[in-house]
Amino acid sequence: MNTFQAKETLPEIPDNLSIPQFFLDLEGSERLVAKDPDVRGVEPGNPWLIEDKTGRQIGLDEIKSRTFGLANTLKTRYDIGLDDVVLLFSRNNVDYPIAIWAVHRLGGIISRRRGANPDFQAGELLYQIQISKAQLIIVHPEALETAISAARSAGIPLERILVFNIGSKDTPQGFQSISDAVREGLAQPKQFSEPVIDARKKLAFLSFSSGTTGKPKAVAIPHYSVIINSIQTAVHNKVFQKYAPWHERRFRPGDVAIAVLPLYHIYGLVLSLHFILYSRMSLVIVERFNFEDMLRSISRYRISHLIASARRTTNPDVVRKYNLSSVRFIMTGAAPLTNETNEELFRIFPDAHVGQSYGMTETCSGCTLFSIEQRRGISGGSGILMPGTRARIVKPDGSFGTYDEVGELWVWSPSNALGYYNNEQATKETFIDGQVTSLWVRTGDEARIDQNLEVWVTDRIKEIMKVRGFQVAPAELEGCILSHPDVADACVVGIPDDYSGEVPLAFVVLNEAAAKRCETSKEETVNIRSSIQKHVADNKVYYKQLSGGVEFVPSIPKNPSGKLLRRLLREQAKNLVRSRPPRTRAKL
């Protein structure tokens, strides 16, 4: 049996503390990994949270106060207690973490909905309410109508819907706002006691999986997973350690990060929120991502750290308008970066540490990250195993691979989730080989691990195409297509073919200039399509050519972390194939 193991070890972490007890109450928790006696943590005046739109700053004392006030009201008015589930259905908000920690103070569980789009179907929200058995909903005003419809269908009284405050906008009539609930709780004595827990087993979150391969499943994440993954990231990055001159250290108390990733995604929840606050840095909370707005915020708040999802930056002319010299660290995940994208980031941020991480909801965020020894991660690599993490490569015949052999990536980490909530069959298929505290996660990703423990993720195994018996990875073709000068984004799926079994079809988003050329000339549309196909043909072996064709689309569907929702385009591709006459289908 070949098991790859991270070289660094972890300190002893308390397993009897809830998330807010560890992050908000445990003074000196950073000393668990500290070796530098000069590091004393964040100065009292440094804000923990900053509201992007208004510049409002919230320090630890106010965070504790608001968390207490909300917890008090959740107990007295709504009777939320041990193991009760509260559903958060919202975009980023400065009170989003307050709501999380208030529920956790009571021993409750947070169920997080991916997205708060008003067009989101109430039926899908109802599905999550029913799976998690949520008893209370906290919602963004824009998604209130969806929440109302789902609540009615689930039999949840409308008075059990709270609404986040958005700037100076009035709270919708008939609903209590979070700020009102905080004030109500602060006006009365403490009415709750925090339960004693086993953090390794006590559920903190029901985080619904991305749905890239089917209906979302509720991933059961205990308090310990969020705590330990934050510590793993801190140990890996030598947070609080005097390993280099101050100006060269990756994470320093007083630095400023920006939360452009949604906090309802595991990446944003653990790395953008809890790890950043553990590192005693300030976090700018952005409600809704917009590329130029992000650049403006970087300049305004002197942002030093970006934790984001990136496939390709856009519009260099816009980038040049802003002072981005403060950025010292960029970590990306969710989608592999091509050499071209990496080089683009290096040009824009010449002095920054830039690299990739890899993880999933089932591992409670990151299990790899680019090495602290490198200023720049390896293009195409996903980083090395995080401290305390082990990995296996399982080949198609079931045997375990060694260095540079390709197979399915299995991961063991102390941060791994407990399984899928109330779904024994799905849990058995993904969480295997151990007891509750030592389950391996089958990632469903094809990968290899080299001699330096760098993990190279090839693709989702279920997304691998078989063309005339050859395996073809969509991500490889997408990287090639993205290097075409007219392309802004791309996604490749396989479509059935009578001769080859399956052939690649590319959905392509053109950049602004190319799109304008197509608007004025049908001939130009044909020329660009042919140029993209030729570009792939010139760079890839014959069976990897875009024999299924190129379809131009306005955007590529992705989940909030930036992962391609390939299954949606597969359905679109099936419809295209049905509409095509047989003679136009590809033959290699």
TrEMBL record:
Keyword terms, alphabetized: Membrane, Transmembrane, Transmembrane helix
MF GO annotations: CoA-ligase activity
Ranges where the AMP-dependent synthetase/ligase domain occurs: 48-421
Gene3D superfamilies for the chain: 3.30.300.30, N-terminal domain of ligase-like
UniProt keyword Iron-sulfur present: no
Superkingdom: Eukaryota
Transmembrane segments: 256-278
Keyword Aminoacyl-tRNA synthetase part of the UniProt annotation: no
Domain AMP-binding enzyme C-terminal: 476-563
One Pfam family, short name: AMP-binding_C
Protein name: Acetyl-CoA synthetase-like protein
Originating species: Collybiopsis confluens
